[in-house]
Predict the structure.
Amino acid sequence: MNDRITMQVARYLPEGDAELSYQEYEVPYPREWVVLDGLNYIKDRLDGSLSYRWSCRMGICGSCGMTVNGEPKLTCATFLADYAPGPVRIEPLQNFPVIRDLVVDTGDFMRKLTSVKPWLIREEEKPLSEGEHLQTPAELDQYKQYSMCINCMLCCAACPVYGLDSEFVGPAAIALAQRYNLDGRDQGSKLRLDVLSDHEGIWGCTFVGECSKVCPENVDPAGAIQRYKLTAAMDSLKSFLMPWRGS
Amino acid sequence: MAKRTIEPLLWLLFSAGGVASAMLIPALALLFGVAFPLGWLSPPSHEHLLAVVLHPLTRLVLFFLFMLSMFHSAHRFRFTLYDGLQIKHLNEVVNLLCYGGAVVGSVLGAYLLWQIG
């Protein structure tokens, strides 16, 4: 328990600072401590002014994503001991505007997420009396993987295109769109196609693949994007070759 | 209906080109660039090879291989220019150079194939 590790934490105050600066703190790092424990130690014992987001500390809420030694990580699932002897550098997620210290502005991400209509769309609601929509395990498997997304934004922080092109809708939103497109109960894939098949929707992706590498839930957004590109391209080819079929 | 863009078709050409060139070019390069020159395999005679190339189906396959590979590289190069050099504002010029180059290359490839024999 006497062992300590140096955490270099990015600090930024919107009212005063022009750029991020780093402050060093010495924190203990017992074997079971994650980076978030280190930050909580700083907040509770060393410097109450540090700002960061967290909630569940068990990899479900998706709030504690930060850049740890240059890589986007869920700080509740990243052990401090793995960075011994240190120092370990904690920065806000890349590709997002910083509000204060380690807190980033999620507004753009949320706007893009809702733009793909991530909910079940039915042309006509089935009356309650007809009972529930049944699905086979095979039908569930079609989209289950994409439903594991916790909106932690690590994929967007890792994606170079998301950083370079502010209009690119991003890996999380496309994987989420696929979650509903591939759901047998949904009938809204045409509506989503309109949002996704324009240039910045999916075609901006150059298949770097970092999104899938950093995803803590193994959602594989890169795979979702490639699959969706093929769907959208075939759809587009069909309407090009058979314009009379319309949409 | 979303605005009709050509992007999906360009991506299909890119995608098809990636598959075609990844499957065929290494095989051709291994045979004609390594195995035949080094004598690992006995090369076919000139007449034999010429007869194969003169077959319309071979020419068609080779033409699609050339054409798709060129569209593949044009698409890849376009995004390299966008993201690497940050010149997305020159969109139209970049598109013209990349895909125009692929069209010119394809026509040249077709002409050379036509000229054989």
